[in-house]
Amino acid sequence: MRLLRPLIVFLVLVAAWQGFVQVSGVAAFILPGPDKVGIALLTHWRALLGHGAITLAEIVLGLVLGSALGVASALTIAWFRPARQWLMPILVVSQAIPVFAIAPILVLWLGYGMISKVAMATLIIYFPVTAAFLDGLRRTEPGWLDLARAMGGSRLSVLRHIRIPAGLPALTSGVRVATAVAPIGAVVGEWVGSSAGLGHFMLQKNARMEIDLMFAALLVLALIAVTLYFAVDWALRRALPWQADGEATAD
Amino acid sequence: MTEGSTLDSSAEPAAPGVRLEAASLAYKGRPLFENLNLELPAGRITCLLGPSGVGKSSLLRLIAGLAEGARCRVRDTEDRAIAGRFAYMAQQDLLLPWCSALGNVTLGSRLRGEPRGRDLEARARRMLTRVGLAGHEADRPSGLSGGMRQRVALARTLMEQRPIVLMDEPFSALDAITRYEIQELAATLLAGRTVLLVTHDPLEALRLGHRVQVMSGRPARLDVPLEPPGPPPRDPADPAVLALQAELLKRLARARQAQ
Fold first, then answer.
1. What are phi and psi of A190, to 5 degrees?
2. Which residue of chain A is at minimal alpha-carbon distance from B112?
3. Does A155 touch chain B (CB under 8 A)?
4. CA distance B29 to A242
5. At A247, is the pLDDT very low, low, confident or very high (cuts 50, 70, 90)?
6. Does pLDDT of A120 surpass 70?
7. Which of A23, A170, B151, B220 makes the best surface tag, with the fewest CB within 10 Å?
8. Do B111 and A157 touch (CB under 8 A)?
9. Among partner residues A158, A165, A166, which is closest to B111 by beta-carbon distance?
């Protein structure tokens, strides 16, 4: 039943969609029915797969880079206390500027290829990861720190053996949020200027009123985003089994 | 078994006595205590009781060097500082949820960057066996009961091989029977060390303490110590213990009124 439930929800949604298209008689170039989208998916699967692979690569690279930079920043800020006052304003400003606004500049600087999209995804991922991990590092159970002090641990070893592992659950929730928003960065980058990727494909098909193909691309993008999210979520749970237990009981 | 029984005491230097002199600490502008003196006799368990909020825990944290904004002098009987020679045990077990019982027991040596030899692991396993947790070495804290977790915390405290042990209500979160058992264990395993045990349980103090003191008033004072006869752990049905318990309850009631 647990596996069947999402399938049933999916089938009901598709049926409702088909029913709505049938009953309302809406034009296919405004809202194509699932049958047309299905056909588009089948006839153009090669192109969709190619563009999808590029978008996926951009998202994953952005995720890896953004998370790595976020972890490094959080550790730096946690270690050098004055760094917080210097770096936090930069972090906040980097978030205050909408990605859409910097996308053209990034494309101008880094070109139409993948690099500008990876940069965009990195930028959008960086902040949630940094903020979440930093929060985790700064909220270590005070009792553990007292204990470590009595045991005679150095600052570095307390960071390594207590503060970092204690901050990992916060980091993983940051990475989860980042995984959910990463596709935005990549697709926005592709819309602004690109020669490949699902965003590029959708923009082209939209201009040619091939709305069924646009929907097909959208489906592929959604599939990528959802699969990636669940894969990351699964991996994070596997990596921190002691935390997954607690989450399950809190549910 | 012989290996197990000789394992810590032989390696450790004789426990020194500890003197806390002229301790002063304020909380929100009001003094908790001023110019307070406390002596922990060498190799003995000193129990500290008092109404909540009187500053028992603060006094212990002060000795441990964990209290901010305090003034005091903590010296052993040879007039040396005690830093690095005491172990600390709190009311919460403070076990790291990501480490196994074994990993938690060896935390101290990991934090100090000591070599992770087989000796260390063997010693940690023996320590867990001594607190009755053989077979649970690989369990994470989430898989252990409250009493078992506190036993791990006790094993971790003893693994430190420190002559001085500071315990802040270590058993107060446990149910009566579990507490009774772990008190018995603690009294045996802590023998020969200089211990300060903060507690709110008069019976616990009388079972475990060589010396029992009540802290009361504001700024707080310590009364004349009670010294229950016989070695700990004492039988709670012992008439001497029961008589002292009545006396101790009276003192605590007075202390509460002075609060």
1. -70, -35
2. A153
3. no
4. 42
5. very low
6. yes
7. A23
8. yes
9. A158
- Whose tokens are 């237990």? That residue is A245
The residue of A242, A243, A249 whose CB has the most chain B CBs within 10 angstroms, and thus the best one to mutate to test that interface, is A242
Contacts of B183 (CB under 8 A, 6+ apart): B171, B204, B207, B208, B233
**What average pLDDT does the segment A38-47 reach?**
92
Give the long-range contacts of residues A18-27, CB within 8 A, separation 24 or more. Answer: none
CB within 8 Å: A157 and B88? no
Cα radius of gyration (chain B): 18
The nearest alpha carbon in chain B to A239 belongs to B98
Tell me if B112 and A150 make a contact (CB, 8 A cut-off).
no
Asked if the C-beta of A249 comes within 8 angstroms of chain B's C-beta atoms, the answer is: no
| pLDDT of the residue at B8 | 46
Task: Write down the pLDDT at residue B178.
Answer: 86
A144 contacts on B by Cβ (under 8 Å) = 94, 96
User: Who among A148, A166, A168 is closest to B111 (CB)?
Assistant: A148
Cβ-count burial A120-149 (b if 16+ within 10 Å, e if not):
bbbbbbbbbbbbbbbebbeebeeebbbbbb
Q: What is the pLDDT of residue A248?
A: 43
Chain A hits for B64, CB-CB cut-off 8 Å, are 146, 150
Contact A245 B142 (CB under 8 A): yes
- Looking at the complex, report in whole angstroms how far the Cα of residue A126 sits from the nearest Cα belonging to chain B: 26
What region does A128 belong to: left with phi over 0, alpha with psi -120 to 50, or beta? alpha
Q: Does B112 touch chain A (CB under 8 A)?
A: yes
Q: How far is CA B115 from CA A15, A77, A166, B118, B170, in A?
A: 65, 30, 23, 9, 29
Mean pLDDT, chain B, as a whole number? 88
Res A148 pLDDT > 50? yes
Cβ of A25 under 8 Å from any chain B Cβ? no
Two structure tokens written together for B129: 């066996």
CB contacts of B68 in chain A (<8 Å) are none
pLDDT (tens digit, 9 = 90+) per residue, B125-171?
999 999 999 999 999 999 999 989 999 999 999 999 899 999 999 99
What is the predicted pLDDT for the residue at A95?
80
